[in-house]
Sequence to fold (531 residues):
Amino acid sequence: MESILGWFAASAIVAVLIAIFARQRGWGMALPVLAAGAIVGALPMGPSSVPDPEVFLIAILAPLVFGEALGSSFLDIRRVRRPVLALAVGLVIATTLVVGGVAFQIAAMPLAVAFALGAVLAPTDAVAVSTVARKAALPRGLVSILEGESLVNDGTGLTALSVAILAAVAGSITALQIGVAFVLAIVVGVGIGLLGGWVLALVLARSNDTIAANSLVLVAPFGLYLVADRLEGSGILAVVIAGLYAAHSQSTKARNPGRLQSAMLWRHVTFVLQALAFFMVGIELVNTLLAVSSQERSLVAILIVSVVLALIVTRVVFVMGLVGVLGRRMPTFHGQPTSRLIRGAFIVGWSGARGPISALAAFSIPLVIASGDPFPFRNVVVATTFGVIVVTLLLAQTIGPIARKLKVQEVDGQASTRRLDAALAYAALKELDEVEEAVDLRGQHIEREVIEALRSETQRRIDAIAQDADAVEPDQLAPTSVDLRRLMIRAEQEELLRIRDEEGLPDSLVRPAQLALDLRQQALGPRKPGS
Fold:
């Protein structure tokens, strides 16, 4: 136990330091942290291997995927549900079959083992894909598709892997067993996720103790994963569904005291877990390559190149076919010319980085089969997986240049933000006028200086937006203005939700605006009882 805790502590410190170094220079953390892990793993005094991959799957990836789901948008994903489901289910199955076929032909490994390799590499990595897509300034619709796919396809890929392992260990498996395993994993995973998300949403809505409520959210992914897994469902899928449900419930209320605290908490948690996950991949990369024999290394090299090509071709062809079938019926591509459709489809097809999920899935392959013999080609499968992860992460860095070359990027994304900011400021002014009128009708009085100062401050925001300049810092007002400020912020929060619900504003715009309003509200201090 002490050695495992020491490993966690030392790895977390090194991984976070490297991640901070990369972040300060504007780099993505995946490759630098992975490289640092590989260097540490190659040192004579470095760790020989990662303790119990199953523990890591629960301790690191369950909360990491949960955090990514909390930062994603149910509404945005729902708008692109057709392509997301097609990619998360159809493409995973197609990838499993194609990569399995390639591995079977090249390495002459048992078909079930070959399909296990395909299932391991079928899911894309939520962290790498999301980070690269946003840095490449891809259109919000494409980012929603990629994020939604990478969140959901983990459950499909791990389910396909469990079926392939069952066939490899037992020696055979029927079509009925395959169907039952898939349906059970999806139904149980979704069911546990919905139930867990509902409970979390209920606690968050009714609890006045934000620290206690957010503490429950912090430990929830561990329980959700274990319960779903015990019932033979997809633990990762349960975690994703619960995270999306809880995030949506938090964003639907105009005033939510715990929302800001939760957002800040999970930013720190996911940053640490991302760093630790990629650091672990780097360490195991070295150990895995050392585990294969000299004869197997040439086979692994051939497999890495062949499998990467198979992944790219399968993904691009599938996405192109998907666009051909759905085409402009998808909201993301509504009204788009054919040339832009094809370019957008190519970018989605090219964006297929693999990450820690694939690495830990490979390690979950058992060491022996039912007869007691070693699991055939296990070292080759694991080594190939790690090699493909590194290559696809490197290729992911080309998405930005390719998107710029093909002109598939967000067109004046700042314009939408400015329009939203202006709409919220006008909502605040309208609320101020209504409060002033209501107070006058009651025969009461608000100091004219307070009203004019608040109106001038908000008008300066509007002027700054119109001039595309930074907002002017608000003047220091008398304490009597706090309640009015709070009412104006509340009006902005309600207007934000109205625009989202009635006009279909994507959560990629709503969440930052909501966070800014929460920060402004928090700066006013705690609410007085009864206010």
About this structure: Residues 425 and 458 are 6 Å apart (CA to CA). The chain has two domains: 2-406, 413-523.
